[in-house]
Amino acid sequence: RTCGVARVHWLVACGYVVAPVANTLGFVICTEWGLRGAINVPHWLFSVPEGAGVDSVLLNEVLFSINALGMAIGAPIWAGLCIYVAPRTLLAASLLLQVPLNLVILLMAPQMTSAMLVMFLYGLVSSSGLLFIVFNFMLSVSPDMSNAAVRMGFLEVCRYVVMWLTSAFVFFVQPTSQAGSAATPLPPSVLASLSPMVIVSVIFNLVPGLLLLAAPGPYRDDRFPRWDFRNAGKNLSFIFLCASEVVGALGN
Fold first, then answer.
1. Torsion (CA) 174, 17, 78, 33 in degrees, nearest 10
2. Exposed site from 138, 178, 179, 251, fewest CB < 10 Å?
3. At a CB cut-off of 8 Å and minimum separation 6, what does 178 contact?
4. What pLDDT shows up at residue 141?
5. 2 forms bridges with which residues in the sheet?
6. Tell me, what's the pLDDT at 28?
7. Nearest by Cα to 202 from 22, 17, 4
8. Do residues 125 and 71 touch, judged by C-beta distance below 8 A?
9. Looking at residue 205, what is its pLDDT?
10. CA atoms within 13 Å, Cβ hemisphere of 180
């Protein structure tokens, strides 16, 4: 244990807290692809009048929608896998799958179709984020939920701090302000300015992902029970929590 918390829980918490770095990195690069790879952008994404350039607002809406579609498809898949696959395998897969996504975006040419595909894949992978909350308490189950509530609150605070620091870094380096050319619409200077995010994301996904493959006890042996919707209406608190999540997501 470290600071009274099992070391495996630190790994799980790390995967949850650092997730916004990979998501922000993917969205920034895909946005740059859409703005700079205009020759490969569908006609309906151009601003009016014709020739005014790519409509950045519509581009963001398209990428957000594609990402949300990936999350909507991925969430039930990850939940279903919890019935059959060991938790440590799922957690490790969620982290390790982000490593090639973080690296491949540095090698591909800026195309709108590539941007949409990458954002969809990011949605599929990042939809597993709640598993890092669910599996963060497997070795410390207690009837007193106060410690669990404190830990969840601490994780959320850390995650939001990382998210806002990542956004501040993107605003600071301003990758969109760096001009490209017809031959290289996405200049190396853009990738160089975002390289700290790539390094942080790869390290904090690769190292915990590999270590989680050896997680002990319930992370190796436990599985989720099968879904049973017959009792779904008997506990109103779950229904209200679900409605709260849906309404909150729509507001965001």
1. 10
2. 251
3. 187, 189, 190, 193
4. 55
5. 5
6. 83
7. 22
8. no
9. 87
10. 20
Residue type, 139: L
- Residue 48, pLDDT score: 47
> What single letter denotes the amino acid at residue 48?
V
pLDDT block averages, 10 residues each, the chain of length 252: 70 81 82 66 54 65 86 88 87 88 72 81 86 70 64 81 87 76 68 83 87 82 75 73 76 64
**CA-to-CA separations, 83 to 52, 74, 87, 125, in angstroms, rounded:** 51, 15, 9, 18
How distant is the alpha carbon of residue 251 from its chain centre?
Answer: 19
Unique residue bearing structure tokens 């060991």: 86
Q: Which among 163, 162, 216, 167 has a CA at the least distance from the CA of 11? A: 216
Provide CB contacts within 8 A for 88, sequence distance 6+: 212, 213, 214, 215, 219, 220
Only one residue has tokens 């244990």, namely 1
**Tokens 């090639």 label which residue?**
100
